[in-house]
């Protein structure tokens, strides 16, 4: 019998080596921050990634050191990504949409030594630099001709990597070595640093290319609108080179017109982003009468995909919408809503009901729902439970905090969900936001989704307010559309027939604004503090 090869660790450098060797001429298209379209190949990306690694080594970066990026999706960001991880350092992607104080806190907590930054964010870095004592060098992802005078001694990327050649051999090390570091948005305290190993990233890339997930192949062209700094680019930065898919990067321009131009001009077949991006695209198409001639699959995650959006892509353009769920901690793909043969023929509202679900797990991801005592809840599609997840691509803990999984390897997501008999999961709330009334759970998300369907409502939030008999009862907080003045009675009547009677909000409050985090999530904690002394009407 032939023995199995034991010395082939799952390292990120293997991914870019495969892409360069097998799909070396495949095109990578980018909108650059400087403006024009740039074209390169997987072979050239590997060459320059080796230069990045060699130049980092020259600086003194070693195994396990953190190197940060503050950048858009471009070819240079991809080169840096693979150069950092290939060397054995940790690629720390920083979300520029966070508040400046949060960015400074994250950078200092991660102890990142070098910061790669796009031109867009250089003014931000100049303001933050006095608060970043551990950053030894700022490298701007541009050339010398485009680098403005600056106060932080920043170097142009092209000149920086030109100091070395690409004669560099990727080092070999344990596949469980940290490869990536991505911080959560910190809605309930300081952000937490999620650590990804090389092994987890390679395995996640493999599960992402499967037909029921992203369905990528060497014949696909993928446009990752989801940023590389957002939950690990949903795995596309690994899945695309694994499959040999052609990549189109949007750079800093993510408005509807710019995205449509790339989709059409580059004949994009697959794409992924949060619902707000697709809303802008659909509004642009409504305004211009434009078409989507090549697009086959749209992956929507980050928040729930509206039914109208799913229906518009299918009915107007014949495009398949894949509703996905995941977290920074899950690398992030956890479930994707593909249609199994058992439900392939459903139509109308039944089809929309199913597409609203977050879907079933790919191989290497397991999910379960439990009660507060950790007892499994039935997979009947209606019983809520705390959603737990485990698998080789699920992070076990946080940087400088340690493991947070239980003794069986389950990570508590903080979400409340149902799982139906076919394995389709649907998020119904966050565990800290679910309203526990008389021992039963009420989904604040379900109530919010109904409320925003009211013609006078611009935005809605539902929180639990203390009740003397039922522990908590739902309070509906509303921002009215401009020029509209909905009444309490009309809003509550809108819920009739759509929910169980005992789910009905006890009261309605109209506000001018609902508080949000930097990433657009409703700050329920702030709302609960604001209304902690609110007295509900009693019958």
Could you list some keywords that capture this structure?
alpha/beta, Rossmann fold, GMP Synthetase, Chain A, domain 3, seven-stranded mixed sheet, 15 helices, 26 strands, globular
Structure explained in plain terms:
With 539 residues, the protein is of the alpha/beta class. Among the domains are: 189 residues, ANL, N-terminal domain (Rossmann fold), CATH 3.40.50; 98 residues, ANL, C-terminal domain (GMP Synthetase, Chain A, domain 3), CATH 3.30.300. Helices cover 28% and strands 24% of the residues. The chain is built from 15 helices and 26 strands. An eight-stranded mixed sheet has the order 2-1-11-10-12-13-14-15, with helices on both faces. A seven-stranded mixed sheet has the order 7-6-5-3-4-8-9, with helices on both faces. Helix 1 runs antiparallel to helix 2, helix 1 packs parallel to helix 8 and helix 9 crosses helix 10. The model has no long low-confidence stretch (mean pLDDT 93).
Which secondary structure elements does this structure contain, and how are they paired or packed?
Blueprint: H1 12-22, E1 27-31, E2 37-41, H2 42-59, E3 66-70, H3 75-87, E4 90-93, H4 100-110, E5 114-117, H5 122-128, E6 137-140, E7 155-156, H6 157-161, E8 178-183, E9 193-197, H7 198-208, E10 221-224, H8 236-243, E11 246-249, H9 256-265, E12 270-273, H10 275-288, E13 297-300, H11 307-317, E14 320-326, E15 333-336, H12 348-355, E16 366-370, E17 385-390, E18 397-398, E19 402-403, E20 411-419, E21 425-430, E22 435-437, E23 440-442, H13 444-451, E24 457-467, E25 471-480, H14 488-495, E26 507-510, H15 524-530
Parallel strand pairs: 1-11, 3-4, 3-5, 4-8, 5-6, 6-7, 10-11, 10-12, 12-13, 13-14, 25-26
Antiparallel strand pairs: 1-2, 8-9, 14-15, 16-17, 17-20, 18-19, 20-21, 22-23, 24-25
């Amino acid at each position: 019998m032939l023995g199995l090869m034991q010395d082939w660790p799952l390292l990120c450098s293997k991914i870019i080596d495969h892409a360069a060797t097998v799909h070396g001429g495949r095109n990578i298209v980018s909108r650059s921050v400087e403006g024009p379209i740039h074209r390169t190949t997987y072979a050239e990306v590997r060459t320059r990634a080796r230069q990045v690694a060699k130049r980092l080594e020259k600086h003194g970066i070693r195994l396990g050191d953190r190197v940060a990026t503050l950048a858009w999706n471009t070819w240079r960001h991809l080169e840096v990504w693979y150069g950092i991880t290939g060397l054995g350092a940790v690629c720390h992607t920083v979300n520029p949409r966070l508040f400046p104080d949060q960015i400074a806190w994250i950078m200092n907590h991660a102890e990142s030594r070098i910061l790669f930054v796009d031109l867009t964010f250089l003014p931000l870095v100049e303001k933050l630099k006095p608060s970043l004592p551990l950053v030894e060098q700022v490298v701007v992802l541009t050339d010398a001709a485009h680098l403005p005078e600056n106060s932080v001694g920043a170097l142009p990327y092209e000149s920086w990597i030109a100091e070395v050649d690409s004669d560099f051999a990727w080092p070999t090390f344990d596949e469980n070595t940290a490869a990536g570091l991505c911080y959560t948005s910190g809605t309930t305290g300081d952000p937490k640093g999620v650590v990804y190993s090389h092994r987890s990233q390679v395995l996640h890339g493999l599960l992402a290319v499967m037909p029921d997930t992203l369905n990528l192949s060497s014949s696909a062209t993928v446009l990752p609108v989801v940023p590389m700094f957002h939950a690990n680019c949903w795995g596309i930065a690994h899945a695309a080179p694994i499959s040999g898919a052609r990549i189109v990067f949007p750079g800093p321009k993510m408005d509807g017109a710019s995205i449509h131009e790339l989709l059409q001009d580059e004949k994009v077949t697959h794409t992924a982003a949060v619902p707000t991006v697709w809303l802008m695209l659909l509004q642009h198409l409504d305004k211009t009468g434009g078409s989507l001639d090549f697009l086959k699959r749209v992956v929507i995650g980050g928040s729930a995909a509206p039914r109208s959006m799913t229906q518009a892509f299918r009915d107007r353009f014949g495009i398949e919408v894949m509703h996905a769920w995941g977290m920074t901690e899950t690398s992030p793909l956890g479930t994707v809503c593909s249609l199994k043969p058992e439900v392939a023929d459903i139509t109308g509202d039944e089809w929309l009901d199913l597409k609203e679900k977050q879907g079933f797990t790919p191989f290497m991801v397991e999910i379960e729902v439990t009660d507060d005592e950790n007892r499994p809840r039935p997979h009947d599609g209606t019983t809520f439970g705390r959603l737990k997840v485990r698998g080789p691509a699920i992070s076990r803990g946080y940087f400088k905090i340690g493991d947070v999984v239980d003794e069986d390897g389950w990570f508590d997501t903080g979400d409340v969900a149902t799982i139906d008999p076919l394995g389709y999961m649907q998020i119904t709330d966050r565990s800290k936001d679910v309203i526990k009334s008389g021992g039963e759970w009420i989904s604040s998300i379900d109530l919010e989704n109904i409320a925003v369907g009211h013609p006078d409502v611009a935005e809605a939030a539902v929180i639990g307010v203390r009740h003397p008999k039922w522990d908590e009862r739902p309070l509906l907080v509303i921002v009215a559309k401009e020029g509209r003045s909905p009444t309490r009675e009309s809003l509550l009547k809108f819920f009739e027939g759509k929910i169980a009677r005992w789910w009905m909000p006890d009261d309605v409050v109209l506000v001018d604004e609902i508080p949000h985090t930097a990433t657009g999530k409703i700050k329920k904690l702030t709302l609960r503090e604001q209304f902690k002394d609110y007295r509900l009407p009693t019958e």
